[in-house]
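User: Can you write out an input/output pair for a complex, sequences first and structure second?

Assistant: Here is one pair. Inputs:
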Amino acid sequence: MSTDKDLLPVDPHNEPGHLPIADIPHTPRVTDTDPKAARRAERQVASMFLLSMVFVVLFVVAFVTIDKSAVVYIPVLGVVGASQIALGFTFGMAILLIGTGAIQWAKKLMPDVEVVQERHSMASTPKEDEEAKADYERGKEESGFARYTIIRRTLIGALALFPIPLVIMLRDLWQTPPGENPVELLSTTAWRDGLRIVPDTGETTGEFVKGIRPEDIPVGGLVSALPIDIMEIQKAEHNLNARGKAAIILVRMDPSEIRSQQGEGWDYQGILAYSKICTHVGCPIALYEHRTHHLLCPCHQSTFDLADSGDVIFGPAARRMPQLPIGVDEEGFLVAKSDFQQPVGPSFWERG
Amino acid sequence: MTVKFLAARRRNPAVAIALLLLALVVVGGAYSLASNAQPAVAAMGSQTQVEEGKKLYLEGCSSCHGLNAQGTKYGPTLIGVGAASVHFQVGTGRMPLAAPGAQAVAKPPAYNEDEVAKMAAYVATLAPGPAIPSAEQVDYADADVAKGGVLFRINCAQCHQAAGQGGALTQGKYAPSLMNATPTEIYEAMLTGPQNMPVFSDETLPVEEKKAIIAYVNELQQAPSPGGLSLGRLGPVVEGLFLWTAVFAALIAAAVWIGIKAR
Amino acid sequence: MSTTSPLEKPAPVEKAGGAVATYLDQRLGSNKALGRNLGKVFPDHWSFMLGEIVLYSFIVILLTGVYLTLFFKPSMVEVVYDGSYVPLKGVMMSEAYASSLDISFDVRGGLLIRQMHHWAALIFVAAMVVHAFRVFFTGAYRKPRELNWILGVVLLTLALAAGFTGYSLPDDLLSGTGLQIIRGIIQAIPVVGTWLAFFIFGGEYPGTDIISRLYSAHILLVPGLILAIVTVHLMMVWVQKHTQYPGPGRTNTNVVGYPLMPVYMAKAGGFFFVVFGVIALISGLVTINPIWIFGPYTPDQVSAGTQPDWYIGWLDGALRLMPNWETVVAGYTISWNVLIPSVIIPGILFTLLALYPFIEAWVTGDKREHNLLERPRNAPVRTGIGVMAIVFYGILWIGGGNDIVAVAFDLSINSISWALRILLIVAPPIAFIITKRICLGLQRKDRDKLLHGYESGRVLRLPHGEFIEVHEPINVKEMAVITSKTDHAVLPAPQKTDTDGVRNPRYLVHSLRHRLSTFFYGDNVPKPSAAEIEHGQHHAAEQAAIEAPLHEYEDRDVIYNAHGGVLHHPGMPEINAEQIAEETRS
């Protein structure tokens, strides 16, 4: 890199145009010249510290006396938690006043004449440099690191291998159930042929209504729905994974308005079932506009046209919303006719 | 200091609770009065009412919805939309339309409650449709608020936002804030699906569940803000704005104050 | 200050302190270090406090965080809520969310601490970013401080990680949706993404492991790293001594400021309490993240207006604005629509950020030590790049809140998204050009000040009838600031072959450097030479001297002409008197 040296500009402080440095100007403060002002500043600082103590006392009083559910009206803030406000205000003031007091002290009463210290180059002196080199050479020589090639190489090998156990143990971050793999899991949901569809009522006991009859959903209607056995699955698996994949929405439109579907006859009398999980990065979406038949994702605004196979018409999602083929069972309740024909939710490498 | 002063004065929990109770009683009373007035509206209109309603319809609505409410290219048909739809659209001032736009905007209603009832009665005679909910249907006093919260998050929050502050839809449309919605309006909206809102029929979302949702929306409207100033409950973007303006201004001001030389 | 008797006996506390110091010194030799460092000088400027805000808010985060760990349960086991918040009573939720609600409603002062933790976190990252911009715009990252800049970039990354892991812990609907998005992003990584997602989440989404895993990262791994790196960061500042702004008496080889003991001890210590106090006050008065509104997380629910905290907001905005590109190659999916905005762009940006000091040094060939800060106007390209970054971030953040903007301003999200897509490409370069032009204009103004002095705005007619605007010499402080400018020589254009006709093997590299360095400093307005400056200031002083006698006649000798202007006639009061009389007559 000898070229770099040639390219270096000269030091700016030897350059023409850099004028000699003037002295640092200083004007005395009022507190420097007027003892009364100094005493006033002293009182100011002390009263801030004193007030801080008062606020600590108030904090303790507020903590003990105010009921945690009490609310209070305060202009600007509105009706707010009384305990929260009182504790926050007293605590905040107690701390703040220590700070302002200390700073006021420094500004008014401590010396305000700027002082100068010299800097020294960061680099070591040549002598120190030599010493370090000599020490290193002596260590290299005494250890025989350069001579004992075999020791050196085996040591490097050992050091390179020893982190492997640390990494390998991370394998069981996910204890893969026998016979399962991620691609399979991401590609299947709880839906299967003949499984009844129930509206999501937030029920947690499993006591769902029997199902949904087609006539229950008016044109323009929207129902967030789940498989009827979702709670049993959740109880067996102790997690919400099945719900996260199987959630669907049912919408009903005039059959004449359906321009296309993902499969022949996948609707039932204008009732369409689509996955509720966005194909972009997986937000649940149910912002359904019943006149335009658009479905909008609240996270990143991907928009799907449910009257046209759930195709993407705006936003970052690349894939259409998976549709679930539905029909009715002998009791007249809506059922799935199969699982989804493509993976629901965000894309992944092996999805194809 | 004023805030502190007020906080100290009002710190007595008994006073605060009493005030809140008073507010609840007053508001609740107002609501029950309002909903008690409903049966007259909800009842099937008398013949004269229908006649007068038709007259109002022809004057104010027929230019867009057609002389026989069959719909024109300016407005959809009203046959079968029911009294509830009329009561919601006209009662919230969304109809008559102020100006063509992405969607009808709520504004002070152009007709009084009596006139709205007459028009609703007329439209209800055209074909069967959802009736204006009765006082009993929107009486949420015994409803389960927590259950309503769950249902709200399943069915409503995706458009109206978790705190009911409203949200954006496509192409300039939006789901309005629910902060000023009355129980009857909420019920009617779920039942009739105004604008682009989907319909939540009584079969898939039974009356009890609708009541629970109304109770939860009422809770959102009335609830105090336990943590202090609520910042509109619009989420992290607004919190970020507050951070960069108010909080940072305070901190920078303090830093500048430290740097300024005392006189 | 005003001690009455200078020979007071030491107070008992002081005595005890002295004993401790002696005890420690005999075992550690600590007084040597104390003696060296208590008088250490720090330059004073408000913008040097930004880093302190970062440090102090971090301390607040640690303190409040410890408190929160006493009550928070990082578990995804489903429980039925039975706390005092009525609208969620009886609802199934994870233990993490239930304990967050308990902290908010059943632990006295718990909500205050939770809000302090969250506000302090927002302030922590915000102050870090502003601090980084201060360092950037003033060129404080130049030699010898490049390594500390890299540590800063690492800290920023860790801060984002700390923030996001914390945001996800309460397991409310908002944070869970954020995690869902992260899962989608991880799955989009080619080849390993799918397995990586399964390992991180312990299986399918949402699983039951992620909260406790994020918890250990949030309270142990990330803050531990931050603590360690912050310590090194500060030690380096200590060893290298703080940079300073140009000013009278300030050079590249000294530090001008106040000693640590007592002034900085009081100011910095006091500022810690100010930051702490402001955080406590804000947290007491203003709600942040009202988790009870959002409800418990379930993977099939969502709220409109779902956004991350501000520091992740730009990434969310990028995700929103990205066109929907996805390709399938040989049966494998590459989701460009997710990869580009959330992996590739941030990856490139953070790499460039970390390498910037080295890139700039390579381009300019500047290998000198810099302890005196450079004024932003004197490095127009650097300043332009910084402004460009701010504009870029701003547009993405607006994108991250485009639904809020749409509702607030009654606009269509579709139009906003399209406008922002275009602006994201067009606006930053425009911002760059404008900034560069403004900087060059300011440089020209500085040169004028040196050559002609300061424009007083007063017009003077000389005895021979010439009109001049009086220029005054600039003051000492301004002179020191303006002359601190370094003229950077542009690297010379290389020759294809040297004098002996041998081909220059590194011609292309040198040529690139030449062009980049011309881009960087080629437009700079050169600083006048010392002689020119002296001449200019001398000339200004002369003008001021010509004008000086006028001040003696200030009131009498001023002639108001018919157009409301003011004319002076130095040294000839009798003519002035005539003219005044004439004006009065007419």
